[in-house]
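Hello forum,

I keep getting stuck at the same step: I have a sequence, I want structure tokens, and every attempt I make locally crashes halfway through. Rather than fight my setup again tonight, could one of you with a working pipeline run this one for me? It's a single chain of 317 residues.
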Amino acid sequence: MDLHEPVILGNRTIDQLSQEEKHRYDHQQMHEQHKGHDKMHAEMFMVLVITLIVAQFLLIEWKKKHYRSYSLVTLLGLWLVPFFFALKNHFWRFIFTWLLFTCISGLIAKKAIEKPIHRTTPRLVYKWFLFLYKLSYVLGLIGYFVFLATFFGLNIVFNSKPNLWMESGTLFVFYGLYYGVLGRDISEICADKMASHIGYYTDQGIPTRHLDPNVCAVCGNKLLVPENEEGIIENTYKLSCEHVFHEFCIRGWCIVGKKQTCPYCKEKVDLKKMFCNPWEKPHVLYGQFLDWIRWLLAWQPMIIFIVQGINWVLGLE
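Reply #2:
Ran it on my machine without issues. Output:
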């Protein structure tokens, strides 16, 4: 189909055109509408570039000087903007999963910020967000392999259209990235609140109580096995600062909660030494990748909205 071939209506109406002619007619009308607007389009492009540069600079400075407010606003943007967009476009699948995630994570976060904190709460929090983190990782991998399978034509074996496979892969990747980023930010807030409520350290870095022997420095419960023995349920990890932890607790603290310091003394943690298995290292890289996606999901829609507002004020359409 040649989109540039002109369509002559004559005595016909648009409804009487064939599907191919309608596509050509719409394309023809779009070119007529934008004819002679090259200068305007260049100005709109400059507005977009300048806004992106200025917004990026302001966000970096805001993050450096007021990290807590930046994180809170980013979290609210991640949480609310996609939901309202889905509500407007009637994306019921996303709305259902969003409500389910919000209810469960909200209840667990409520337990994390309660004072006094229950002894079983830290393990519950870390297990939930570690499960959510791994689930997002698996969903992302499934979406990636669906893309590869479509690229190599595997959909033909199942007599399925490639666009259906691409849509499915996109959904898997989106859900994995979105809930991975959102859960990661909420888990960081929970980790901070629990650390202060358990009472091991303050913002000034001074422990407020003594850590008893054979006790996990994150959840305050007794260790199940010595550090050199293989555990049935979970192992015990010791950091270079000699503090010991449950496996689920320290994984949740370092990987899920984005904490690379000891929960008790704040000494820097080397994740490469703590997780020697090469299959575990991609989780650390994946966490850094989620940090990059945050900007795309939370701030990109806002920047586009600002660009559209500037274009409207300047009369650029």
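The mean pLDDT is 76. If your local run keeps crashing, start a new thread with the error log.
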